[in-house]
């Protein structure tokens, strides 16, 4: 379910703020009943009218992007930096990213206008796996890996145990490459986890989101998800 003003905005009726004004003015009906409550939730099956004219609900779309460095994972940016939505400028629907990747982090990012699915994918209840490849300073040891697997403390909170393994160590340049699989999505989490074991990240890429990867896709390239992939995403967040 989504808020009425959000559905109106996605349908191209008006901005969320203007949609709220229209609701308060009594111009909007849901299933034939005038709604003036701004927090009113609507289902996909609900009939919505604005000034007695049914709205055309936006088609749900799903995209996979190989996010490049130097791009913000938001729909808009007050500093006028390039956003991930700017990279999908030819998409007509109002899409937004599912979660975020840092400005300097690359890799797998989902974008959609399906708010219900996006919220579930980001909810810790469903434990969707996210796989990262981190290039870090120094030699990562097996003891470091064990710490990650037990959970490390950052921001006064202990992380949920992760899966981790050492990919390689470059003795000449003194850096390690580590694969890390986490279920959480706290702000700057992977960077903070590696810093907690004294191995600051130099380069970070998300290689997988659940079963999805951007292998074979150039940086900045996106594609629409196939129907079986959308179905599998829904299966990841099914309630038992």
Automatic annotation (TrEMBL):
Organism, scientific name: Marinilactibacillus piezotolerans
Recorded GO MF terms: RNA binding; rRNA pseudouridine synthase activity
Q: Which PANTHER family match?
A: PSEUDOURIDINE SYNTHASE FAMILY PROTEIN-RELATED, RNA-BINDING S4 DOMAIN-CONTAINING PROTEIN
Assigned GO CC terms: cytosol
Ranges where the RNA-binding S4 domain occurs: 2-59
Family assignment from sequence similarity: Belongs to the pseudouridine synthase RsuA family.
Recorded protein name is Pseudouridine synthase
Membrane-traversing stretches:
none
In terms of Pfam families, this protein maps to: PseudoU_synth_2, S4
EC annotation from Swiss-Prot or TrEMBL: 5.4.99.-
């Amino acid at each position: 379910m989504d808020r009425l003003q959000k559905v109106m905005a996605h349908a191209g009726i008006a901005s969320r703020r203007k949609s709220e004004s229209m609701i308060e003015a009594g111009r909007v009906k849901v299933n034939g009943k005038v709604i003036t409550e701004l927090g009113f939730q609507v289902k996909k099956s609900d009939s919505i009218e604005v000034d007695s004219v049914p709205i055309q609900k936006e088609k749900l779309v799903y995209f996979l992007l190989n996010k490049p460095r130097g791009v913000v994972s938001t729909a808009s940016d007050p500093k006028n930096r390039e956003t991930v939505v700017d990279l999908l400028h030819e998409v007509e629907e109002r899409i937004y990213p599912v979660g975020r990747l840092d400005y300097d982090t690359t890799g797998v990012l989902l974008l959609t206008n399906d708010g219900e699915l996006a919220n579930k994918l980001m909810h810790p209840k469903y434990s969707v796996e996210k796989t990262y490849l981190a290039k870090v300073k120094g030699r990562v040891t097996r003891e470091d890996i064990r710490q990650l697997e037990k959970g490390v403390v950052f921001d006064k909170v202990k992380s949920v145990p992760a899966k981790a393994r050492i990919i390689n160590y470059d003795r000449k340049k003194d850096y390690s490459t580590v694969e890390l699989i986490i279920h959480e999505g706290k702000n700057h989490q992977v960077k903070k986890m590696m810093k907690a074991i004294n191995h600051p990240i130099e380069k970070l890429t998300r290689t997988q989101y659940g079963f999805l990867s951007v292998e074979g896709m150039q940086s900045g390239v996106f594609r629409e998800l196939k129907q079986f992939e959308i179905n599998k995403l829904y299966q990841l967040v099914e309630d038992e």
